[in-house]
Amino acid sequence: MRHFRAPRRWRSALPLLAVLLIGLTACSGPFPQSTLEPKGDFAETVDHVFMVTVYLAVGVFILVEGVLLWTIFKFRGKPGDAEPKQIHGSTVVEVIWTIIPAVVLAVVAVPTVQAIFKTAEVPTVSADGKAPLKIEVIGHQWWWEFRYPELGITTANEIHVPLNRTVDLRMKSVDVIHSFWVPQFAGKRDIFPNRETRIWFTPNTTGEFPGACAEFCGEEHGRMNFYLMVDSPEDFASWTTRRQADSTLDNFGFPKPAVAPVAPVPATPGTTRPAAAADTVAVDPQLAEGRKLAVSKGCTGCHSFNAMNPTKGVIGPNLSGIGTRKMIAAGWLPNTDENMKRWLQHARGVKPGVAMVVPPISDSEAAALIAYLRTKR
Ligand code: CUA
Q1: Residue closest to 319 by CA, chosen among 370, 275, 274, 261
Q2: Cβ of 223 less than 6 Å from ligand 1
Q3: Ligand 1 and 224: CB distance under 6 A
Q4: What are the pLDDT digits (tens) for 142-163?
Q5: Separation in Å, CA 365 to CA 95, 106, 290, 321, 372
Q6: Do residues 50 and 34 make contact, with C-beta atoms less than 8 angstroms apart?
Q7: What is the rounded distance in angstroms from the CA atom of residue 35 to the CA atom of residue 244?
Q8: 330: Cβ below 6 Å to ligand 1?
Q9: Which atom of ligand 1 is nearest to the CA of 218?
């Protein structure tokens, strides 16, 4: 059987071909953190400026390389040729190659300046006709706090926004300089301890999009991530309802202790007194143990399980809905039971700089805590 052998002159091109193929497979997506895949108006505006620049650059490349190649072949020297005419210092040539780049830059400046003005101002009306949704972004070493002042909600490391609604982010830091960046929606924006910065965007595609801190802010800067969840209006309403349901809980997200009525309330015709919510956690022994451990292991000293009353437990991320979040440890680990256990038992092993200090937790204690955390949906 004859083996295929590439002709010798091809063989030198094979490594180049391999590199090209590898390069092309690297381009085959998905693109979770690419600015080249914009999913909102702000990012599309920036992408438009980028593409105009790329097309102009390609034009310049073809023109310059074309003239170069034409010159190489047309004016190729032959043995015995006389010295060619020297044009060093030619005013005509100098003027031409000064004017052309200036014109190219002037052309690029038009969409650039337009984009600067367009993205500088937060729109007053959303694409869906409503007012933009205000969200306060607070940077911490090394996690993200998100507050929805109009909805009363506080959450962390997972920001939910409704499709086609402009979000108006007002950002500050409680410690050092961080930088908020969700590549598919907007450019980077630094956030400072003593000054509010703002950014806005309108998501046009539902999905889960990773974001990151883009300014070196200390040991765990590289693990200061978050997810932006673009929900359909129905899903966003459902998420909002679940967070707001925390208003029936105490500061730590535990059911408020039942208060016995001082005197029997006379029944008013046509009304019924609401039945006390059943405390399913207290009934299940493992869940009850998990809730007890959340206090005895010190979790509630830093964390609140309540999205609606963030006056206690504000040192660490708010854990309302932690049971169904995509990630834990500030966007670092997928939210599986296995990772949760690893995080509870060896937080410093996962993120050496983390502020969380947890006393030793046995396997059965971890299981009870995780079972309890999973009830926070
Ligand atoms: Cu926060 Cu880097």
Answers
A1: 370
A2: no
A3: yes
A4: 999 999 999 999 999 999 999 9
A5: 78, 66, 7, 20, 11
A6: no
A7: 34
A8: no
A9: 2
